Amino acid sequence: MATTRSRTRNQEVTRSRNGGEETVRTRARSDGVTRERLIELLNEDLQREYQAVIAYVVYSQVLKGAQYMTIAKELELHAGEELAHAIKISRHIDYLGGMPAVTPKPVKTSERAEDMLRFDLEAENMTVREYRERLLQCESQGLYAIAEDIREILVQEQEHQIDLATALGKDVVDAAAPEELV
Predict the structure, then answer these.
(1) What's the number of domains the chain is made of?
(2) pLDDT above 90 for 107
(3) Per-residue model confidence as pLDDT tens digits over 50-106
(4) Among candidates 177, 57, 178, 166, which has minimal Cα distance to 107?
(5) Residue 111 CB burial class (10 angstroms; 0-12, 13-18, ≥19)
(6) Mean pLDDT for all residues in the chain
(7) Strand ordering across the sheet containing 21-28
(8) pLDDT at residue 45 above 50?
């Protein structure tokens, strides 16, 4: 299967050839997002950061078994990093004239350690994908300082993604491809 990508100013086009068939996927680029919409999207990101703080705090304490002790300690560190992300995102929402969200996205729980780690990996995959979009959206509005902070957050989120995938014995998926997140 051959895949080619091309970009225009307003869209990304992906063409895949499989057995003579051509599939075209078009994904709108992030130009043109309004300031108000950017505030809404950053608030969704903030809710995901709150969700991550709660999940990492809980999971780091309830993971049982010698095989999970290393990742449990890592999750404690992740909780602190996610809190720092929440503070940065809140500051940017305020700067843009919005009110930071106060409620997290729902946190999934389980009795099984592997399920908890899988829930975290799914959430990190989504977060990485969303922050990649947010980076483009901020740059398209000339909000380069916010974009730089998001770039730094994205680096840590990808490290979390790698830590969780490694603990689960999985490869890290391309979080930019939504079909791989399922």
Answers:
(1) 2
(2) yes
(3) 999 999 999 999 999 899 999 999 999 999 999 999 999 999 999 999 999 999 999
(4) 57
(5) exposed
(6) 84
(7) 2-7, 11-18, 21-28
(8) yes
Q: What is the CATH number of the domain that holds 116?
A: 1.20.1260.10
Write out the residue range of the structural domain in which residue 80 sits.
31-181
- Dig out the tokens for 48 from the structure: 């995901």
Are residues 10 and 68 located together in one domain of the fold? no
Comparing 6 with 82, the larger pLDDT belongs to 82
The answer for residues whose C-beta is within 8 angstroms of residue 67's C-beta and 6 or more apart is: none
Q: Give the side-chain half-sphere CA count within 13 A for 133.
A: 23
Phi and psi dihedrals of 96, rounded to 5? Answer: -80, -5
Predicted confidence band of residue 174 (pLDDT cuts 50, 70, 90): low
* Alpha carbon distances (Å) from 180 to 26, 129, 171, 176: 17, 11, 11, 9
Do 59 and 111 share a domain, yes or no? yes
Instruction: Give 54's strand partners.
Output: none
Does residue 37 share a domain with residue 22? no
> Pairing mode, if any, of strands 2-7 and 11-18?
antiparallel
pTM of the full structure:
0.79
